[in-house]
Amino acid sequence: MIRMARLGAFFLFCFAFAPAARAADKVTFGLDWLAEPEYGGYYQALATGIYKKYGIDVTIVEGGPQVNTAQMLISGHLTFDITSNSFLALNFVQEHIPFVIVGAGFQQDPDALIAHPGQGNDSFAALKGKPIGVSADTRASWWLFLKSKYGYTDSQLRPYGYSLAPYFANKNAIQEAYVTDEPYLIKQKTGHYPVILTLPDAGFDGYASLVATSEKLVNTDPDLVRRFLQASAEGWYSFLYGNPQPAFAAIAKANPDMTPGLMQYGYDQLKARGIVDSGDTKTLGIYAMTDARWKAFFEQMVKAGMYSPTLDYKAGYTLQFIDKGFGVKK
């Protein structure tokens, strides 16, 4: 009994002085739109406990027409956010904003222009001089690329209110869209798909759905950045090549407008078009980026007159946390 009592006292002593279990790091992660399959990897990582496995307590903050998650990131209310396209990374540098891209969620940009079939609007070149509805954000980004390449002018611009109503009301309507969403909704209503002209079809070589964070976090807690990206990549592999239902359930809960049919269509498009996993990701892993592709994009945009050739574009991103082949099936 004495030995047992001493042994018990010894264990109590050890527990008293043992380091406490590390609490999960809290992360707030901002999307650039409402919950949908385009964020499936993140919802999968959350729903299946992958983030928890990596010691991260993640709260996903939806975006939307009235939510500016970029401002929330800059103000410190978010740890990471989805930065929609490569333009914003270069804008960070141009405007001396201390934020940096740490991974590219999309290898193919799903932005597109859509038009009615049979109206002669079957190519980007055919749209020159015709009214096109695009958002304010697009006017300051890839619209400028299309102007430079196809001779579009701002006189063609029409308001875009994130609605298909103008499209359904006018057979000559042309407007921006996401290849994973609007074509399905149009097919449901009209019985046929629209003409879909994607940015990659136009030769646009930018990344999309990039993950951004502050330079401060990269410098002070690189391990957190690494764990968030690795956990998210694992979530994407699970979502794309495993059972996507946990993510579908979480997405539908966050955004009831996401019907099963629309979610399945978006999911299928992500896979068929290689939006997340294609090209460099096949060897370097999801979130892959390369200096060569950033250089090509920058030179493309300099030619379009969007940036000075002296801009230090490399300051807008880092390859520190990606291109390790994490999750790639051998």
Task: Describe the structure in your own words.
This protein has 330 residues and is of the alpha/beta class. It folds into 2 domains: 25-107 and 206-316, D-Maltodextrin-Binding Protein, domain 2, CATH 3.40.190.10; 111-202, D-Maltodextrin-Binding Protein, domain 2 (3-Layer(aba) Sandwich), CATH 3.40.190. The chain is built from 15 helices and 10 strands. The chain has helices at 2-17, 40-47, 50-53, 69-74, 86-94, 136-139, 142-150, 165-169, 182-190, 215-220, 222-241, 245-254, 260-272, 281-284, 291-303; strands at 25-30, 56-61, 80-85, 99-106, 111-115, 132-133, 157-158, 174-178, 195-198, 208-214. A 5-stranded mixed sheet has the order 2-1-3-10-4. Strands 8-5-9 form a 3-stranded antiparallel sheet, with no helix packed on it. It has a two-stranded parallel sheet with strand order 6-7. Helix 2 (40-47) crosses helix 11 (222-241). The chain is globular, with a radius of gyration of 23 Å. The N and C termini lie far apart (57 Å). The model is unreliable at 1-20 (pLDDT under 50).
Topology, please?
Layout: H1 2-17, E1 25-30, H2 40-47, H3 50-53, E2 56-61, H4 69-74, E3 80-85, H5 86-94, E4 99-106, E5 111-115, E6 132-133, H6 136-139, H7 142-150, E7 157-158, H8 165-169, E8 174-178, H9 182-190, E9 195-198, E10 208-214, H10 215-220, H11 222-241, H12 245-254, H13 260-272, H14 281-284, H15 291-303
Helix pairs in contact: 2-11, 2-12
